[in-house]
Design a protein that fits this description.
The complex is a heterodimer. Chain A is of the alpha+beta class. A 5-stranded mixed sheet of chain A has the order 2-1-5-3-4, covered by helices on one side. Chain A has a single domain, classed as Ubiquitin-like (UB roll) (Roll), CATH 3.10.20. Chain A is built from 2 helices and 5 strands, in the order E-E-H-E-E-H-E. Chain B is 30% helix and 26% strand. In chain B, a hairpin with a 6-residue loop joins strand 6 and strand 7. The longest helix of chain B has 13 residues. Chain B is globular, with a radius of gyration of 14 Å. Chain B starts with a helix and ends with a helix. Classes of the chains: A alpha+beta, B alpha+beta. Chains A and B meet through strand 5 of A and helix 5 of B.
């Protein structure tokens, strides 16, 4: 059944403050990623962080939030993680 | 002592979401009469077939510059340390964990091995305990 709303409330747990907001389902995941990055001050180091759901990285950030939500069964309040990627040099 | 309070503050500040998700069970061990505070963290490694590891991060007065001193210890008797408690060096190894290095160390930001041994030119800066543990958990699972 199609979601009559055009927003979904998502929570992103980060290493700083968490994000808990409504997002337009027509926006790309990049918007959610950027919002979470802002909380950790990582805007300039996108490649050092990953947006994850159930421990799986959401790597295609161009996909619409609504499409991913439908595919993965997200509902209002679904929780994701923003985690740092290991930097081994 | 400020260094000890700072250590306790960052340990107490670990986010319950991540602690619970990964089963870290952080535990502080203090040694009377010494400038040492140990944090013991339980780690479960998918990469190593579910092996349980116990990481000891030793805080000393210089930890904010030198890094948190890392060692893996016996999960059943955390007073015992030794290479046998580290992830293996190969087949499968764990990226960034170097048990064969002298001294054994971890090449991830936030610990002594990174900031004082392998990359002494790279300061601790704003590295955090939580960030380090998440990075270590990631390499233990990948």
């Amino acid at each position: 059944m199609p979601n009559p709303k055009n927003t979904i409330r998502l929570v992103v747990v980060t290493t700083a403050d968490d994000v808990d907001e409504e997002f337009n389902v027509n926006q790309p995941l990049q918007v959610l990623f950027n919002r979470a990055l802002h909380e950790v001050g990582g805007e300039g180091n996108q490649d050092q962080f990953a947006l994850e759901y159930n421990d799986v990285e959401l790597s295609d950030l161009s996909r619409k939030i609504g499409d991913v939500a439908e595919e993965l069964g997200w509902v209002d309040g679904t929780q994701l993680d923003l985690v740092p990627k290991p930097v081994v040099v | 002592m400020a260094w000890r309070e700072d250590a306790r503050t960052e340990i107490d500040g670990l986010k319950p979401h991540f602690v619970s998700k990964h089963g870290w069970s952080p535990r502080i061990v203090e040694h009377e009469g010494t400038d040492v505070l140990d944090l013991i963290v339980t780690l479960h490694s998918k990469r190593l077939g579910g092996r349980v590891l116990a990481l000891r991060l030793r805080y000393q007065p210089d930890w904010q510059i030198a890094g948190r001193r890392e060692a893996f210890v016996d999960p059943d008797d955390r007073s015992r340390e030794g290479l046998e408690h580290w992830p293996p060096a190969r087949d499968p190894n764990v990226r960034g964990v170097n048990p064969e290095h002298n001294p054994p160390c971890i090449c991830l930001r936030g610990v002594w091995g990174y900031h004082s041994v392998l990359h002494a030119d790279r300061p601790m800066g704003d590295t955090t305990l939580l960030g380090f543990l998440l990075e270590l958990q990631k390499v233990l699972d990948e």
